[in-house]
Sequence to fold (137 residues):
Amino acid sequence: MFLGQICLFAALKPLSVCAHLFEGNYDLVPAAEPINLRINLTDPAYAKLQKKGGFVVVEEVVIAKSNDGNFIAATVVCSHMQQKKITYSKDQNAWLCKGHGATYTLQGKGTNEHGKNGLRVYKVVQEGDFLQISNFN
Fold:
């Protein structure tokens, strides 16, 4: 029955996700859904992005202003246990999962055992007072 569940899963999900089932990677990161966010930095809802180390969560995307002043973005979903607990750590200048302590570089590379599967990061382009966040192509 388990094999039938895998086949059903494979039929419903993109092949890139299913391929991981046969590579021994059991902490699956779901296939990337298209992300296309545009936020206005002058909106008070994003005031935390005015200073280095500040971050906000918008539609399951963590958007931060890193210690070097660049805007960065990543999924809020940790690849370790799929908990929505990713934040930006100013102290570590890295992505951090508050659930089990997974850590990731700003580019999404895992830096400890819990982060070994990496983290999906997004492209951020600043256009004046606006940030455009999207998938890398």
User: Anything to note?
Assistant: DSSP finds two helices and nine strands in the chain.
